[in-house]
Amino acid sequence: MRAPEITKDAKPGQFLELKVSETGEPFLRRPISINSIDGDLVTIIFAVKGKGTELLSKVEVGKKIDIMGPLGKGVFEVQEYNNVAIIGGGLGSYPLYELTKRLKGKTSINVYLGFRDKSVVTCEKEFEEIGVNKLVIATDDGSYKEKGFAIDFMKKDIEEHMVDRIFACGPTPMLRAIKKYAEENNIPCQVSLEERMGCGIGACLGCAVKVKEDGNEVYKHVCKDGPVFFAKDVDF
Ligand SMILES: Cc1cc2nc3c(=O)[nH]c(=O)nc-3n(C[C@H](O)[C@H](O)[C@H](O)COP(=O)(O)OP(=O)(O)OC[C@H]3O[C@@H](n4cnc5c(N)ncnc54)[C@H](O)[C@@H]3O)c2cc1C
Ligand code: FES
Which of 219, 221, 225 has the most ligand 2 atoms within 8 A of CB, as the residue to mutate? Predict the structure, then answer.
């Protein structure tokens, strides 16, 4: 989508709220991560899950679409590192692409992407073209590239070469396991949460998560305060 007002200061980890119908049904916008920014073009990738994404998949080329964004205050930290591990599961791989592009040249990057099976492997060529130190594509059933969970490949590499940051996005069980591993090994880790959302702007409380702040447990909005948090603060 061509959207200069969104692309001018969008950060990796931020998302968009897309209006999916002109009739007002369904009423709620749908949250989709920013996958890539190229000039004034913003790319999203989404899976058709229900009515909203089904309608979105039918939008014709050339048609205008109503987007709110970029949304989210908690974003992935782009700065100089020594080595980083970037790990995505399924749809969670999509926002990591813009992050990887922006980290290129600032650190050595290993990327681990896990998918259910071959049919849903996405963005492999794009990640390859960035030219990272290592790219592992894993499928749960072994139908493409490595067989197994992306986290196990990441752990094996970290045992040989410590990283100073893990960035992760994916299903909650995967993020929970990554948080545990990062804590055990003292590695700062940022996770992007994909909570179910209503309004997307902090007004409905639909996306509340329990997080630690200054030693206290508080509720935060994934849409407004996230979607990226430090794993150590999130109560999965
Ligand atoms: C911050 C964020 C980023 C996301 N990025 C992507 C992405 O890049 N690509 C992608 O394919 N999907 C992404 N999702 C998930 C996507 O928003 C849902 O698949 C989509 O909203 C489902 O809508 P639907 O109408 O097709 O399904 P329905 O099940 O009919 O949706 C009903 C309602 O539930 C909400 N909802 C349903 N599933 C989810 C979900 N998993 N997360 C959040 N809200 C949900 C919808 O917004 C809607 O309000 C993201 C979700 C969040 C919160
Ligand atoms: S989605 Fe409404 S407060 Fe976050």
Answer: 221
